[in-house]
Design brief:
Bound molecules: fe (iii) ion
CATH architecture of the largest domain: Alpha-Beta Complex
Helix content: 40-55%
Number of strands: 4
Radius of gyration: 20 Å
CATH class of the largest domain: Alpha Beta
Oligomer: single chain
Strand order of the largest sheet: 1-4
CATH topology of the largest domain: Nitrile Hydratase, Chain A
Number of domains: 2
Shape: globular
Strand content: 5-15%
Largest sheet: 2 strands, parallel
């Protein structure tokens, strides 16, 4: 696999080695139950991810009542719908319109709506993103390949440990009559952070 000549840990990255060492110590000292730890990791690897948020967005696109409930109190609307799992954090949904595009950051660290988007992308935690998106969101968007009309304002929302944000992107034109499932396939993770837009229906292969 590599030209390294170490023992059996050599295929692990440094961070993986550190995590393994930490897990071993915590388990040996009885602080963590490895079975529970495995369940937590599996939960975030398979059950929670942007597919959850995509379903929420698609639902909001087809159901005006759910949409207004979502914008009023996202935590309550999502949890009470019983369709997307439980939201254990204070979640606020912010809606993109032709007049206002929303972007989410955590300037202090990396707070992120895990319940609907899963694990944050690496760039979300990077210092350049966290500082530049506040100073010059339009150029950050350009880096992501997104150009908005000059008449569209950009609002940046700063997450905290107490409050997380989910962007409700605009429904792409040309999707009239689409099923929720098909609509959800257009909703990218970045479109729910505000660094991207939903995929366009023409770009779809199916
Ligand atoms: Fe944070």
């Amino acid at each position: 696999m590599s030209d390294h000549d170490h023992d059996d840990g050599s295929h692990l990255s440094e961070i993986q080695l550190r995590v393994r060492a930490l897990e071993t110590i915590l388990t040996e000292k009885g602080y963590v139950d490895p079975t529970v730890l495995d369940q937590i990791v599996e939960h975030f690897e398979t059950k929670v991810g942007p597919h959850v948020g995509a379903k929420v967005v698609a639902r909001a696109w087809v159901d005006p009542t759910f949409r207004s409930n979502l914008l009023a109190d996202a935590t309550k609307a999502i949890t009470e719908s019983g369709r997307f799992g439980t939201i254990g954090e204070h979640l606020i949904a912010v809606e993109n319109t032709p007049e206002q595009h929303n972007m989410v950051v955590c300037t202090l660290c990396s707070c992120y709506p895990w319940d609907v988007l899963g694990l944050p992308p690496v760039w979300y935690k990077s210092a350049p993103y966290r500082s530049r998106v506040v100073m010059d969101p339009r150029s950050v968007l350009a880096d992501f390949g997104v150009t908005l009309p000059p008449t569209t304002g950009i609002r940046v929302w700063d997450s905290t440990a107490e409050t997380r944000y989910l962007v409700l992107p605009q429904r792409p034109a040309g999707t009239e009559g689409w099923s929720e499932e098909r609509l959800a396939s257009l909703v990218t993770r970045d479109s729910m952070i505000g660094t991207g837009l939903p995929a366009q229906p023409g770009a779809q292969t199916s």
